[in-house]
Amino acid sequence: MTQQISAVDNHRLDAVHLRALRASLQEDRQFRRQQLQDIARRAVEVVETDCTPDHAAHSEVRRQLTVAAQTALAETEAALARMDAGRYGGFGRCGRTISLQYLFVHPQARYCTGCQQFLAMQP
Fold it and tell me: Are 69 and 39 in contact (CB under 8 A)?
């Protein structure tokens, strides 16, 4: 989904933007749910048929994929909850709003780019 956002309205989150961002988040939620179902289904198939020495490695990869998908789903659900509560798009750590440009790239974002960079650098 590509949307042009001018510098003037970069911080104004109106109904049109919210609808587009909500649709993006709902699409991601559906994708993550399907991804988790696919991983679980594949795990059952592998357990029934995989007797190779690589079974432990495959199990670990599936575990890591599951954790990543669950984390992404939780972040998406949290963004939708913030949207429903009227707190989407701003006032995370520093009190500044998150730019629309950043939200359209990372609709799950709960922090502005400055705070996100700061948090990423923390041990």
Answer: yes
Contact 59, 4 (CB under 8 A): no
For residue 55, name the pLDDT band (cuts at 50, 70, 90).
confident
111/5: higher pLDDT: 111
Mean per-residue pLDDT over the chain, rounded:
84
What 3-state class would DSSP assign to 99?
Answer: coil
| Residue 79, CA atoms < 13 Å, CB-side half-sphere | 26
Do residues 123 and 40 lie in contact, with contact meaning Cβ atoms separated by under 8 Å? no
- Cβ distance 80 to 29 under 8 Å? yes
C-alpha 91: how far from chain center: 18
Helices and strands in the chain: count of H runs, count of E runs? 4, 0
CA triple 22-28-34, angle to 5 deg: 140
The secondary structure of residue 92, as a DSSP letter, is S
Sign of CA dihedral 72, 5, 90, 84: negative
